[in-house]
Amino acid sequence: MAGVSEAALTVQSRMSSDPMVNKFIPISQPSIGMREKELVLAAVESGWVSSIGKFIDEFENCFARYCGTEFAIAVSNGTTGLHLALAAFGIGPGDEVIIPDLTFVATANAVAYTGATPVLADIDPETLCIDPGSVEALITPRTKAVMPVHLYGHPADMDAIASIAKSRGIIVIEDAAEAHGAEYKGRRVGGLADCGVFSFYGNKIVTTGEGGMLTTNDPTFYNRAKRLRDHAMSSDRRYFHDERGFNYRMTNLQAALGVAQMERIDEFLARRAEIMAWYRSVVRTSDVVRLNRVQNWAHSAFWMVCLEVDRFDAGTRAAFIQSLKQRGIDSRPYFYPLSTMPMYQQESLPVAARKSRVGLNLPSFFDLTKSDVERIGHVVNELIEDASLR
Ligand SMILES: *Cc1c(COP(=O)(O)O)cnc(C)c1O
């Protein structure tokens, strides 16, 4: 095997027609079809390769329509989208923004970029999203915004958050980077608060390579965010700027990919739900071994398949991930709580700490087959039995 890269082996085994060959199953992989290629090529050939072009408009329009919002703004990625949203709401030094302890680090970094302080709330053990009770306890006169994250595709309890925030004039920004198409009480995420922010990174539900989107119904916010995205250029005096903005624009090439992906979003979500059902039929669960939980008011987008094994500790989970890898199956641990990282270090929050310790994500992507999931499920069952984790 010397000199043969793992990537080469993966490609080779993926191309094999022998179903008994144990191909390496990645945790995530984009689905780029003929239509995506057609539209990206059209964008390239049009000469509109930067951030002006018809695909930007089309992508923004179709995304707003999908989320049921009045407006959408395409941006360079989800992190810049979060930063832009906070900046456009005027959040800055001296302000506090409440976010969940368990999330991807971008949620906290975007707050810190503005000079405001990220304040960490604990999570709800059922949804893995921010716990409204914890939010309420953290509110101070400096609290300017709350940023719930629809973690792993499951929506946060938005009504409970709104009832805490609205009466106090606190802004609510949805970090919907992981939850395109998820529904809360029959309404799609992105349209549930003052603003929604999405990511189109390569492993997200819809991808543009790198990219992001803001969604909103607020015309004042919309105009301000759009101006700040483009260096706050004056609309009547070109190259005059009356405040400091950003270049957070998306390219027309990325938007072309996004338009083609949005034509397939129903198909993407249906497949993710199907994959989840396959996992449920093969993985043996119990009181201490669980797959994704879904509240009766929610439709999860199932961005990630979540396996929780209560008897995991750092060592046994790492060994489990290693054993999966040896059997050709990729997986990844849940996010680490922000409160354990040097930039945001503080006293730990019990639910986030516990969930972070016992959770891992298993493969889920459009081209995963039922037999792939059966293979993964059998290995998972076997490893759990072997380690007496049930
Ligand atoms: C992916 C992600 C982001 C950031 O998106 P990028 O496009 O990678 O910058 C923000 N928040 C959450 C919860 C994410 O999962």
TrEMBL record:
<dbReference type="InterPro" id="IPR015422">
    <property type="entry name" value="PyrdxlP-dep_Trfase_small"/>
</dbReference>
<dbReference type="InterPro" id="IPR000653">
    <property type="entry name" value="DegT/StrS_aminotransferase"/>
</dbReference>
<keyword id="KW-0808">Transferase</keyword>
<protein>
    <submittedName>
        <fullName>DegT/DnrJ/EryC1/StrS family aminotransferase</fullName>
    </submittedName>
</protein>
<dbReference type="GO" id="GO:0008483">
    <property type="term" value="F:transaminase activity"/>
</dbReference>
<keyword id="KW-0032">Aminotransferase</keyword>
<dbReference type="InterPro" id="IPR015424">
    <property type="entry name" value="PyrdxlP-dep_Trfase"/>
</dbReference>
<dbReference type="InterPro" id="IPR015421">
    <property type="entry name" value="PyrdxlP-dep_Trfase_major"/>
</dbReference>
<comment type="similarity">
    <text>Belongs to the DegT/DnrJ/EryC1 family.</text>
</comment>
<dbReference type="Pfam" id="PF01041">
    <property type="entry name" value="DegT_DnrJ_EryC1"/>
</dbReference>
<keyword id="KW-0663">Pyridoxal phosphate</keyword>
